[in-house]
Design goal:
single chain; alpha/beta; Rossmann fold; 9 helices; about 20% strand
């Protein structure tokens, strides 16, 4: 994706400037992962999360897919085996993976239904698909949609309600935030069962980086939500 080629370093810098938010999101990503699993990260970006999952949680993700060549180059330096491809056109070997993870990439995928179908085929029996992202109904997505419509974070409507270090506006404008219900229905329609939910970032976005936040069950409060479904 061209916008991530142009802003690959800004992506990492934003997370590193928001260390508590990063740690909170990392907890959520680790929540449904298991050790000794063959895991594919689709939309792995710079591999920042994968690197920290190994360092902080001893969870190894060796394989990634990323459409941005600049982001993939950083991920490769961090030890991932990355194929450069959009998720929609990437061909995955059937019955290969224990876990397929979409972390923060769902909103940058045009045909999520197709990608979920492909994920189902690529998972082993009993494997799981994990979708993690900012849901459209959340406080963060509401701010992002407003800023995207205004084409700036510097507007009177956003004064006093915007985080100190907001997500780069170019990346905000490129996203299509989906509701949790939309993602749940797509997973169920494509055969995933026994869905589980977890969430974090439970405060207003202005305070999301004040401290590391815990992970709780459900998807009705958090600004970062994980949906996990299983292949029979």
């Amino acid at each position: 994706m061209a916008v991530f080629d142009e802003h690959a370093n800004a992506y990492d810098s934003w997370f590193l400037d928001n260390q508590n938010l990063l740690a909170s999101e990392l907890k959520l990503v680790a929540h449904f992962l298991t050790k000794d699993s063959t895991t594919l990260s689709i939309g792995c970006g710079s591999g920042l999360f994968e690197m920290l999952l190994l360092k902080d949680y001893d969870l190894s993700i060796h394989y990634g897919v990323e459409p941005s060549a600049d982001m993939a180059a950083i991920a490769k330096k961090r030890g991932l085996k990355v194929d450069i491809s959009p998720a929609e056109t990437y061909e995955i070997e059937p019955d290969k993976f224990d876990i397929i993870l979409f972390n923060g990439s769902v909103s940058y995928i045009s045909d999520l239904d197709l990608c979920i179908k492909k994920a189902f085929a690529a998972l082993k029996s009993g494997g799981k698909l994990i979708l993690i992202d900012v849901p459209k109904e959340s406080g963060f997505a509401s701010l992002y949609n407003l800023a995207g419509s205004l084409d700036t974070w510097s507007h009177p409507l956003l004064e006093h309600i915007t985080p100190a270090n907001p997500y780069p506006i170019e990346l905000v404008k490129s996203a299509n935030w989906r509701t949790s219900d939309e993602k749940i229905k797509l997973m169920q329609a494509n055969g995933f069962i026994d869905l589980e939910y977890a969430q974090t970032l439970l405060t207003h976005p202005m305070y999301a980086n004040d401290k590391v936040q815990e992970v709780i069950e459900g998807y009705d409060q958090g600004d970062y939500v994980a949906i996990c479904g299983y292949k029979r």
